[in-house]
Design a protein that fits this description.
The protein is of the alpha+beta class. The chain has one domain (4-92). The chain has helices spanning 11-16, 23-42, 80-94; strands at 4-6, 48-54, 61-67, 73-77. The chain has a four-stranded antiparallel β-sheet with strand order 1-2-3-4. Strand 3 (61-67) and strand 4 form a beta hairpin.
């Protein structure tokens, strides 16, 4: 699964990844970026930081807690396995066989 990661300190990157996003959702994404910047600047998460990402195939937002130095993912919501299951279900439903008409 290819997920484009976006660091919340670069709000224009997150918004640029939001091509064809309804205005209401764009506003929500800007609010998320602002909130993440505040949390990251506060140091509340210690050596970790909030990072938001957009899955390019589903355009779903993903929230990660990453180590600031190593960029190791400590927590991701939704988890990677859930994203893979959703992709598998979507691709299997698009490949279902349609009954053939008798001629």
């Amino acid at each position: 699964m290819n997920i484009s990661s976006t660091n919340p300190s670069a709000s224009s990157t997150l918004l640029a990844a939001a091509v064809n996003v309804p205005p209401e959702e764009a506003v929500q994404r800007r609010q998320l970026v602002h909130a993440a910047k505040s949390v990251n600047a506060s140091g509340t998460l210690g050596e970790n930081q909030l990072v938001f990402a957009v899955d390019p195939s589903t355009h779903r937002m993903i929230m990660r807690v990453e180590n600031r130095d190593t960029h190791e993912v400590v927590l991701q919501v939704p988890p990677e396995y859930v994203m893979r299951m959703a992709d598998d279900l979507a691709s299997s439903s698009s490949h279902t066989l349609q009954p053939e008409a008798d001629t």
